[in-house]
Amino acid sequence: xxxxxxxxxxxxxxxxxxxxxxxxxxxxxxxxxxxxxxxxxxxxxxxxxxxxxxxxxxxxxxxxxxxxxxxxxxxxxxxxxxxxxxxxxxxxxxxxxxxxxxxxxxxxxxxxxxxxxxxxxxxxxxxxxxxxxxxxxxxxxxxxxxxxxxxxxxxxxxxxxxxxxxxxxxxxxxxxxxxxxxxxxxxxxxxxxxxxxxxxxxxx
Length: 204
Description:
Layout: E1 2-4, E2 7-9, H1 12-17, H2 21-52, H3 59-72, H4 84-95, H5 113-125, H6 129-159, H7 161-173, H8 175-180, H9 187-203
Antiparallel strand pairs: 1-2
Helix pairs in contact: 2-6, 2-7, 3-4, 3-5, 4-6, 6-7, 6-9
């Protein structure tokens, strides 16, 4: 350091080593594009899985439960967990005017009538049933993208941008996330929304 009037001033070599504001902005933009590219690849993999694999044993029950919330305005059917995920999944299906009958539903949560109604839904819609399940799955994929973004944002604020990108890669390549996020089920969305709640509380 060169001393002038008792103040420590950086030398010209040290001043040149510091990144300029333009370089910092370019690095920030590059990091954001990397995050966007990873999230785009992740959602693409989930969309491919959602449109390629047959429904698991309880997805039709979740779908019928969400449709009953939208069409009847009640939450009597599938009262075993919060209705957000299945309602979001049922939104595009309801627009497609599926064949569904909610008569004879038992509101007792121990009876799990949504599974019986789900099988009836598959039989009634026949060739369109897989399309409806796929539409419901695709509507729930943004939950996983939000979870990955919150992972990257939180890690970035704690340990820097490299940690943020690494945390996002861990989320997007996790076998549990890749296996559950393409389904019409509450597992992956619950994990994602739990991250949102925890990050919001930490920020507050």
